[in-house]
Amino acid sequence: MGNRAVEIVVGLFVATGLAALVVLAFRVGNLGSQSDGPNYTVIAYFDNIGGLTVKAPVTLAGVRIGRVTNIDIDKENYRARVELSIQKRIDNLPIDSSAAILTSGLLGAKYVGLEPGAEDSNLKQGSEITLTQSAIVLENLIGQFLYNQADGKKK
Predict the structure, then answer these.
(1) Is the pTM of this model over 0.85?
(2) I want to staple 56 with a disulfide (CB 3.0 to 4.6 A). Which of 31, 64, 68, 102 is the partner?
(3) Do the strands 128-129 and 39-46 form a parallel or antiparallel pair, or are they unpaired?
């Protein structure tokens, strides 16, 4: 009987470990619950999103206040159209706020950072953020550096 009790305890331990791994995988993959309560959607257009993905965080002063819900291409001006779902409790963002695609760490994941503006009217459902800063693409920076180095040697 003692041998069977040890097998049950080991089985429970393994099952708990597997459940913890599944929870960790959902958290790391941003596959957890989308909604943090009621949200409203705003639109931002970028020239280059540089690897930004759906479910990427939207932050204000480093605090997550929403997520990217959709990424598409605008067929009229050939820019990336990014839909941002922002928590309703953050209802006082000025209409002239800006959005930038940032990177967490040197080669980390992309996210959208918001900077509040100074206007009296606020963003609401369907508003458009017009002041945007596209992602900095590392390959483009390296190419510019190499081009400038080669150009400097010619002079």
Answers:
(1) no
(2) 68
(3) parallel
